[in-house]
Design goal:
Pfam families: Indigoidine_A (PF04227), PfkB (PF00294). It is built from 20 helices and 25 strands. It is of the alpha/beta class and about 700 residues long. Strands 12, 16, 17, 18, 19, 20, 21, 22, 23 and 25 form a 10-stranded mixed beta sheet that branches. The chain has a 7-stranded parallel beta sheet with strand order 2-1-7-8-11-9-10, sandwiched between helices.
Length: about 700
């Protein structure tokens, strides 16, 4: 899955609750004005929504049957198709799963007064102890036992910091609670550094940033406390318990303070949105600077890393029956530019039905932009580039490859973009390409080679066609990986000891001793039932990721290809284009060795091929450098063939075996390989430009 660059300062979450609909819209606007992206979280008809439209906000605000959703409530609410607003606990869960690090709310829940007797402790506190999200709030609600709440947060390992010049822990409506926060941060930059440190340590706990209500709209602590005591007394007399206590007390406080508490509530929410969005922007800038420093300021002793020139796509996939955030640590981002998107409708068999994409961001990957990373490129053990990138950029990379002997893998992307490097001699500097059969035909057509009008579907014919179309490219390319869908892959390249070498250096050493021969090997796919196939859109990317990861780890050819097949099979079973299960442990040499694999079939002979002088005028021409006429019956000398001596396991192709006139040249049998595309694995680390 090729994913283009995406830039946004950060995502900030707030949750709809007491404020009216107009306040919800106002808070989102505050977040936008401060450079962040609001992603309001809610449950609509049994579905978790991260980022609500205006219509969805209105639906949730006006719903009379909306429920309060915390961690414990998710299974029931989702299974029953209910709608509701999420608590701090519920919002943290959704935000974390969506990859959003900063969450803004009014105030957190905590230990209720007399909690030592009732054991009424909010799930917000335990969630802060086990979910790594930064929560920006006006402290804990005044109706709670703030001292015990802070003690409980300490027990849960939650880092708590007051925001501003004072360590005074705020009490929601009031700026003072009588308790000190363990730490304090003076501004958004200090808060961002604190959050980044917590996230960088990989702790499972969250961070609480306590922001006091603005001075001019804060309520008097004494007035609020008196109202709380009266409201608590009434709640006890009415037998109100559990999760109904907090909304009752807040409503009662509004009545008892003649609306002063509500005014403070709205003011602190607005202020929290402003402070939280500024913290989110500062955090994003900090993390972006660290990523850029890692890419551009690598130590001399650091081993050169592969470079991928292409983009990050956000794929939206829907299947006809019944989408984790990408790790951006090695991805450069373009400011003020939108990530490419691709929306695909998948049939019940997992095949693509309809696809619609916005790939305009790729036009920004210009020769000038890429050239600033020339040093990284020239030291990279592998450079990957695809057909979405502008032609001038592809030609620049090919020029660097020619001048610095770089290994370059080109992924054609689709039939219309496949031929970009082949419009000139640039393609001769490529090392690997990974086309499917349609793309391979388009490439040969661009080069002026004979191509079949129709592509076959029977395995034997598919293999024959793929081998014949790959053959003319191997005069300059080191290896052609032809992806054949359910038929597997055909690996075509130079032989080394009877098998195909993926390492250009190894081939050059072999070629020094003797003339290298061309070879083809067909690898069947891992058997997967039709029912197991969920989505085919990322299988090809996963395949090439596994192959290239194996090659970079210097594994043998069979292991590399099977790592690719294993990665592809995982993505075929995944609702996400690239399976989140794929890792260096799930796709590895050890995993390959632990499985039984269908035998790969090799065909290696000394071969040469040349086009017929007049292929369209001969009734015996198959249009692919092959002739079906018996030996000696054609005086055009279309192609010379030489009898091969394959082993019993070799896959036969349509290439004739009879000796013919014109000695000294020959055309060997070739086989084919299945459907695997391009995304490079996590080890070794990849740099995305």
């Amino acid at each position: 899955m090729k994913r283009p660059f995406f830039t946004t300062p950060c995502d900030t979450v707030w949750r709809p609750k007491e404020p009216p609909l107009s306040m919800a819209r106002e808070v989102e606007e505050i977040v936008r004005k401060n450079g962040a992206v609001p992603a309001t979280i809610g449950i609509l008809q049994g579905q978790i929504h991260v980022g609500l439209t205006d219509e969805e906000l209105e639906f949730l605000a006006r719903s009379k049957n909306a429920v309060k959703v915390s961690r414990r409530d998710f299974p029931f609410v989702l299974s029953q198709g209910l709608s509701g607003g999420t608590t701090v606990s519920g919002t943290m869960i959704a935000a974390h799963k969506a990859g959003i690090p900063v969450f803004v709310t009014g105030g957190i829940g905590g230990v209720h007064r007399e909690g030592e007797n009732t054991m009424d402790v909010s799930a917000d506190l335990t969630e802060l102890g086990r979910t790594p999200v930064a929560v920006v709030s006006a402290g804990a609600k005044s109706i709670l036992d703030i001292g015990r709440t802070l003690e409980y947060l300490e027990t849960q390992g939650v880092c708590v910091a007051a925001f501003g010049e004072s360590r005074e822990f705020p009490a929601f409506f009031s700026r003072q609670s009588g308790f000190q926060a363990p730490y304090h941060v003076r501004d958004e930059e200090e808060a961002a550094k604190l959050i980044d440190s917590a996230l960088g340590l990989g702790l499972s706990s969250g961070v609480l940033i306590a922001v006091p209500c603005p001075q001019e709209r804060a309520a008097s602590g004494q007035v609020i406390e008196e109202a709380i005591q009266q409201a608590l007394s009434e709640a006890r007399s009415k037998g109100i318990t559990g999760k109904e206590v907090t909304p009752f007390l807040l409503q009662k406080l509004t009545e008892l303070t003649d609306g002063k508490s509500l005014d403070s509530n709205l003011a602190l929410i607005q202020n929290n949105a402003k402070v939280g969005s500024c913290i989110a922007v500062a955090l994003s800038k900090l993390q972006k600077a660290k990523r850029k420093g890692n890419l551009l300021g690598q130590e001399d002793m650091t081993a050169p890393q592969p470079v991928v020139i292409g983009g990050i796509n956000v794929d939206f996939v829907a299947k006809a029956q019944n989408p984790e955030i990408l790790d951006m640590s090695a991805v450069l981002q373009l400011e003020e530019k939108s990530t490419a998107t691709y929306c695909a409708v998948i049939t019940s068999a997992g095949e693509l039905s309809v696809g619609l994409g916005d790939m305009d961001i790729h036009h920004q990957i210009t020769e000038q932009y890429v050239s600033q990373f020339k040093e990284n490129l020239c030291q990279a053990p592998l450079v990957c580039i695809d057909g979405n990138v502008p032609l001038s950029t592809i030609q620049y990379i090919c020029q660097l490859a020619r001048e610095h002997q770089l290994a370059v893998c080109y992924e054609p992307t689709d039939e219309n973009k496949a031929s970009k490097p082949f419009l000139s001699d640039s393609w001769k500097a490529l090392t690997y390409i990974s086309p499917n059969l349609q793309e391979l035909r388009a490439i040969n057509r661009t080069l002026g080679n004979p191509v079949p009008a129709e592509l076959p579907s029977r395995l034997e014919d598919v293999v024959q066609t793929a081998a014949a179309l790959a053959c003319p490219l191997l005069a300059h390319l080191h290896c052609v990986v032809v992806t054949l869908g359910s038929h597997g892959i055909l690996l075509c390249g130079k032989s080394l000891g009877g098998s195909i070498s993926l390492c250009p250096g190894a081939h050059e050493q072999a070629a020094a001793a003797a003339a290298a021969s061309l070879c083809a090997a067909h690898y069947p796919t891992i058997p997967i039932s039709r029912e197991e196939i969920v989505n085919v859109s990322g299988a090809g990317d996963s395949l090439m990721a596994g192959i290239l990861a194996g090659m970079l780890a210097k594994h043998d050819t069979d292991t590399c290809v099977r790592m690719g097949l294993l990665a592809a099979s995982l993505s075929l079973r995944s609702y996400e284009p690239i399976s989140p299960v794929i890792s260096t442990s799930s796709v590895s040499q050890e995993q390959v060795k632990s499985r039984r694999w269908p035998e790969a079939k090799h065909s290696c002979h000394n071969i040469q091929s040349r086009p017929c002088q007049k292929p369209s005028d001969c009734g015996g021409c198959l249009g692919l450098y092959t002739c079906k006429l018996p030996p000696g019956t054609c005086n055009l000398k279309a192609v010379s063939r030489q009898r091969g001596r394959p082993s019993p396991t070799l896959l036969k192709t349509s290439l004739e075996k009879e000796n013919v006139e014109s000695p000294g040249t020959g055309l060997a049998e070739q086989d084919c390989v299945g459907d695997l595309l391009l995304k490079v694995g996590a080890e070794p680390q990849i740099s995305f430009i």
